[in-house]
Backbone:
């Protein structure tokens, strides 16, 4: 397989998305990254694994690169506990590499930034929870935790009149827990630094106590606002590892659920964005529309957020003709309301004044730092798996990607409006062409050591999963990757030069996941 | 502006009746009589995410949509625990949030009602106890009301909150 001008021996992986696996040495690890970056590719995820109950040598690091034909998953076996740093090629690798060290003790050499990332003080710096010989429940480290606090070395800004505003982890509104450190002069933001990991729940370790059937439930709870995207990516990874496939009706129903999740989240965000810019009317109207949709979800699918409906092998729901017409009627009603609300937003001078030019990420910066997903598309990063690497049923639906160039809050609002419209079209098209027959298939038994990947365009961006199975369908290693990993660092840039009171608006316009990031 | 006002008039009031309190949700009975007397239904709440998957947060936000209109009952979310009568705690308590949660509790004035919201907050849920989590909220703080569900519906959350102050 060619990455730019580099030829790499790679093996195609079975599954719904185009993907290849390649075992590389340290020089190829770096060269492939450089070639991928130079030819317009990007880093999707970087993680490590302890293979002491499988392959030798014990440790390996893995990186998923998106290149022109699809994903290439590189595996670099490590004879020592170090590997080449790629954070100067892909800046997004910085935090991922630091997380690999915190959880597995594998160090990138020599990175510019060696600070811890996911670890605070719940376990000591020389203990690595994702190692297979780590079996404790954490109580062994309680005395360590009691004597230590998270003394994270923030980068401080000095100068006349500069002061710091620490915000979080407990915020003023109903949002997730994380810390923002603002350095400001007057009301302008000179620097913003994020500190996460507060919500680290040991998700990856928990997966290793599960098998590929029971893991589906946890996959749907990594970040609930994207439960459909996660459950689908997980099912895709298991199906890819087993060499099985969900029936075609199931694939179409998964897409139906994914588009409903996208619409519901975008509606909620549009409401909050109006509210954060001072238009409470927006929140009232959009939250009403979102609630209508959630109620229809509960009535038809049995869960407001569509949790636990996608499983490896298919889906646990179906849609009758009557239910299908209820969904169509909802799409029609929503579309006309949306047109009206969009014109109210567009023509509201106070609202547009807050939106336009606020929290701007220029396309060049977005490209350099690897912004993806919805926020990426609002900064001219034209990536949408549904359009570019479309698996069934998107290969039959001709998805129109929504993009914008301005990269400000206004652009992220416009992309949301455009994506809702497109999703409503897709929902109708899916209901129109829904294949008949089964919704759930029996999957073949996977061999020990089988690997699989899942890759789904959730409403926020690409959700990725890399799975390796152990004996009898047990999960040996599962790495879930949220698009927030790529996008959180860009929020630090988006806030620069803006006033502190605009930060909630900017933050909401990205609406990134803390839980999906902290794992 | 005309369109905006017209829309408000056309949609009208969507708010539905609130659920009745449910005594079975109460896990601690110590304060109830005194609270009912003092609050007369009015309450301020501080939400703390102790490590949730963000599902419970979606439903807490839904409480203020026009259908549930929690504020219409005199119950408000406030920006600081120092202004709050009740903590609404979601998630299994991650070890990294333990300190922040305890400090939030310390900053809350009496009677410091605590509602554990969602399966994880009530039992530890799918995450349980591990190197990273301490499990259910009652392992860290005294809890008055448990509202289970994954996530609990807005009506279930309202019922839990109303039970706490009835």
Residues:
């Amino acid at each position: 397989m060619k990455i730019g001008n580099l030829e790499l021996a790679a093996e195609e992986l079975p599954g719904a998305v185009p993907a290849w696996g390649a075992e590389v040495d340290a020089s190829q690890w770096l060269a492939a990254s450089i070639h991928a970056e130079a030819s317009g590719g990007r880093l999707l995820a970087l993680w490590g694994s302890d293979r002491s109950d499988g392959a030798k040598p014990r440790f390996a690091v893995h990186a998923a690169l998106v290149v022109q034909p699809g994903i290439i998953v590189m595996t670099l076996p490590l004879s020592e506990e170090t590997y080449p740093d790629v954070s100067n090629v892909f800046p997004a690798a910085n935090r991922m590499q630091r997380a690999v060290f915190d959880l597995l003790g594998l160090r990138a050499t020599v990175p510019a930034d060696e600070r811890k990332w996911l670890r605070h003080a719940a376990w000591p710096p020389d203990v690595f929870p994702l190692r297979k010989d780590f079996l404790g429940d954490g109580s062994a480290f309680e005395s360590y935790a009691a004597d230590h606090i998270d003394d994270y070395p923030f980068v401080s800004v000095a100068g006349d009149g500069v002061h710091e505003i620490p915000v979080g982890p407990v915020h003023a509104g109903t949002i997730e827990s994380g810390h923002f450190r603002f350095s400001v002069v007057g009301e302008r933001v000179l620097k913003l630094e994020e500190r996460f990991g507060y919500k680290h729940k040991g998700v990856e370790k928990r997966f290793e106590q599960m098998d590929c059937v029971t893991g589906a439930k946890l996959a749907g709870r990594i970040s609930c606002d994207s439960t459909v995207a996660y459950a689908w990516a997980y099912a895709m990874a298991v199906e890819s590892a087993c060499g099985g496939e969900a029936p075609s009706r199931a694939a179409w129903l998964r897409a139906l659920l994914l588009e409903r999740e996208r619409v519901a989240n975008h509606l909620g965000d549009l409401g909050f964005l109006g509210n954060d810019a001072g238009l409470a009317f927006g929140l009232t109207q959009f939250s009403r529309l979102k609630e209508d949709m959630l109620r229809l979800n509960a009535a038809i699918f049995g869960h407001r957020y569509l949790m636990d409906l996608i499983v490896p092998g298919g889906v646990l729901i179906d849609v009758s003709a009557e239910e299908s017409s209820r969904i169509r009627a909802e799409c029609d009603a929503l579309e006309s309301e949306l047109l009206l609300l969009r014109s109210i937003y567009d023509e509201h001078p106070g609202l547009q004044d807050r939106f336009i030019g606020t929290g701007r990420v220029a396309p060049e910066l977005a490209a350099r730092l690897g912004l993806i997903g919805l926020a990426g598309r609002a900064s001219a990063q034209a990536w949408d798996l549904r359009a570019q690497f479309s698996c069934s049923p998107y290969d039959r639906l001709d998805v129109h990607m929504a993009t914008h160039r301005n990269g400000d809050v206004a652009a992220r609002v416009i992309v949301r409006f455009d994506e809702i419209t497109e999703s409503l079209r897709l929902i109708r098209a899916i209901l129109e062409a829904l294949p008949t027959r089964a919704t759930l298939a029996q999957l073949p038994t996977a061999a020990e050591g089988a690997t699989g990947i899942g890759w789904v365009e959730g409403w926020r961006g690409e959700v990725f999963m890399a799975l390796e199975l152990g004996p009898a369908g047990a999960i040996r290693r599962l790495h879930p990757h949220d698009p927030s990993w790529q996008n959180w660092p860009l929020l630090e840039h988006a806030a620069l030069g803006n006033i502190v009171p605009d930060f909630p608006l900017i933050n909401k316009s990205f609406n990134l996941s803390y839980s999906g990031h902290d794992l | 502006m005309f369109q905006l006002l017209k829309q408000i008039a056309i949609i009208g009031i969507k708010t539905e009746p609130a659920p009745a309190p449910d005594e079975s949700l109460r896990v601690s009975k110590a304060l109830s009589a005194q609270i009912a007397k003092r609050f007369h239904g009015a309450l301020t709440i501080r939400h703390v995410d102790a490590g949730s998957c963000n599902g419970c947060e979606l439903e807490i936000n839904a409480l203020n949509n026009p259908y549930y209109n929690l504020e219409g009952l005199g119950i408000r979310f406030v920006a600081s625990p120092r202004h709050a009568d009740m903590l609404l705690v979601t998630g299994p308590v991650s070890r990294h949030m333990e300190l922040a949660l305890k400090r939030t509790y310390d900053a809350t004035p009496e009677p410091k009602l605590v509602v554990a919201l969602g399966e994880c907050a009530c039992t530890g849920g799918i995450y349980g106890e591990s190197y990273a989590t301490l499990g259910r909220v009652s392992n860290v703080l005294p809890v008055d009301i448990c509202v289970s569900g994954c996530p609990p519906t807005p009506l279930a959350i309202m019922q839990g909150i109303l039970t706490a102050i009835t």
